[in-house]
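Narrative summary of target 7.
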Amino acid sequence: MKTYSQFKKETLKNRKVRAAYVSFGPEFDVIVALIRRRLEKGVTQKELALRVGTKQSAIARLESGSYNPSIAFLKKVTSALDAKLIITVRGTEGVAL
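Modeled conformation, tokenized:
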């Protein structure tokens, strides 16, 4: 079984996949962080949905990237995973505003 890092490295060799990955930037980073945290905690999508007060299908949509969640929803999900949502806005110079 491949690790996530191995899978990512191999998959990003494909130009089309790499372009899509780069275009999603922050959205994809959020999804990866949530999935990674859920797996670290040993929580299924269904269990997470129960903790958040939603349906498993909503968690699946979130993790697939086909859902544009509100900040309030992301806060509920991160809280249910014993994590904290932190949003940083940076200028083009890389400096936090």
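The first helix runs from residue 4 to 11.
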